[in-house]
Amino acid sequence: MIDIKLLRDNPDLVRASQRSRGADESLVDSVLAADEKRRTSLQEFEALRGQQKSVSKNVGAAMGALNAAKKKGEPTEDLERAAQQARDDATTLSARVKELEQGAAEAGRDFESRLKQLDNVVLDGVPPGGEDDFVELEKVGEPTRFDFEPLDHLALGERLGAIDMERGAKVGGARFYFLTGVGARLELAMLNMAVAQAVEYGFTPMITPTLVRPEIMDGTGYLDAHEDVYHLPADDLYLTGTSEVALAGYHKDEIIDLADGPRRYAGWSTCYRREAGSHGKDTRGIIRVHQFQKVEMFVYCKPEDAVAEHQRLLAWEREMLGKMELPYRIIDTAAGDLGGSAARKFDCEAWVPTQGRYRELTSTSNCTTYQARRLNTRFRTEEGRTEPVATLNGTLATTRWLVAILENHQQADGSVVVPKALQPFLGLDVLKPL
RNA sequence: GGAGGCGUCGCCUAGUCAGGUCUAUGGCGCCCGCCUGCUAAGCGGGUUUGGGGCUACAACCCCAUCGAGGGUUCAAAUCCCUCCGCCUCCGCCA
């Protein structure tokens, strides 16, 4: 949810943002109109409610006087008449107040549902346009070259006894897999390495719920893309596609202390995605699967620190990729390809030799105060006011990384060299075919 | 799955049975001031959150807020219903 004050003061900024996303610009005016209506009906209701309260108080006073007189045995006729009169006045008002109250509530709901439809305002410098309009910021390393015909990650994985797609499909269906033997060990080693790095930089490691309530899923903005989210109707719970969801919900309805700097969490969770819109894409291997593991960084910070923090998250992702000795590039995602919550997003894409192109391994988003407004997470400013915090997230490692690791570090005999930094976590320096 | 208890403005707590100066009590903590060799103590004041009005985003005024949402009523912390959460006991289960 964006700041309604920003929208009132600077609607053109929001219009421009919607335009660069390719989203609906007219939503801006519909929100402004709904805001106007909400405030008018609220004022009407509140004015009459004030009247009703004071009249109702007269009833209380009249009843008190009447009861006192009865107790003393004094004549009560006048008092009874006065009490009845006050009650009648109040009854008339009451009906009208109820009407106005419902009108105000309705206007409030209408306003909020419209406001929620607006995506976050993109930051200065974000390239306009869609998926293909990203800007490449930097290339790190050179695409790996081989003096033999490289195998793809699945062929390698099968030879190493690391990946079993066939039995994955038997058990879970398409896009499910087993990691076996060194495959399972490799993933655990990588994830542990990611957590170790996070801890080194002061993150609190977290193992999070992967089933969440609707309001949490909605608060992070993922419910807008609900066709990609697993839902358990019997319990009305959602399976999370990233621990970001649980970590964003962690401080819902709280006023957190940011006086000592940002709150940094590293969430480890299994992630579930329906991949409903990607039938036929990446059907081979573990590039795009329904279930995978991820270590995710999540940060709560003051809004004015968010841009700098975003760069830090990117730097931590780069450090991980560097330790995996992978060639990659960094892209500045175009506005139309941002999630509704993000104001800017940088992806790191690693070179996948058998595809001859770069594929996303990490993604870091600055959601500014957008998620925090929906989830009601605030901090106290030095002046003592409460304000929404900024939230950011970024990937430290996922199952998909195994694709890049296997393919880039393969040798002619089908073995795979383990990156130096990973060796202590895995306890192996090379993976050999069975 | 069954039975019972509980949820009050940071923490604890009074109020709920018998609806009406509840404009929610008191303590702790915290903030400001006074007093004071220093510290402590003492004294006085302040201290939920959200929204609206008016504005200097101040002060002030108004509305809502007693887990959440409905209902009854002139009037709800208080009565009724639904939901959520916590605790205890029983049952079942990795």
Automatic annotation (TrEMBL):
GO molecular function, one term: serine-tRNA ligase activity
Family annotation (PROSITE patterns): AA_TRNA_LIGASE_II
Annotated binding of L-serine, by residue: T242, S243, E244, E296, T395
Places the protein is found: Cytoplasm
Record pathway: Aminoacyl-tRNA biosynthesis; selenocysteinyl-tRNA(Sec) biosynthesis; L-seryl-tRNA(Sec) from L-serine and tRNA(Sec): step 1/1
Enzyme Commission number(s) of this protein: 6.1.1.11
First-listed, main subcellular location of the protein, grouped into a coarse class: cytoplasm
Domain topic, free-text comment: Consists of two distinct domains, a catalytic core and a N-terminal extension that is involved in tRNA binding.
Source organism superkingdom: Bacteria
List of residues binding ATP: R273, R274, E275, V289, E360, L361, T362, S363
Function: Catalyzes the attachment of serine to tRNA(Ser). Is also able to aminoacylate tRNA(Sec) with serine, to form the misacylated tRNA L-seryl-tRNA(Sec), which will be further converted into selenocysteinyl-tRNA(Sec).
Residue stretches making up the Aminoacyl-transfer RNA synthetases class-II family profile domain: 152-419
Record keywords: Aminoacyl-tRNA synthetase, ATP-binding, Coiled coil, Cytoplasm, Ligase, Nucleotide-binding, Protein biosynthesis
Protein's name according to its UniProt entry: Serine--tRNA ligase
Family: Belongs to the class-II aminoacyl-tRNA synthetase family. Type-1 seryl-tRNA synthetase subfamily.
Complexes and interactors: Homodimer. The tRNA molecule binds across the dimer.
Positions in coiled-coil regions: 76-103
Reactions listed under catalytic activity: tRNA(Sec) + L-serine + ATP = L-seryl-tRNA(Sec) + AMP + diphosphate + H(+); tRNA(Ser) + L-serine + ATP = L-seryl-tRNA(Ser) + AMP + diphosphate + H(+)
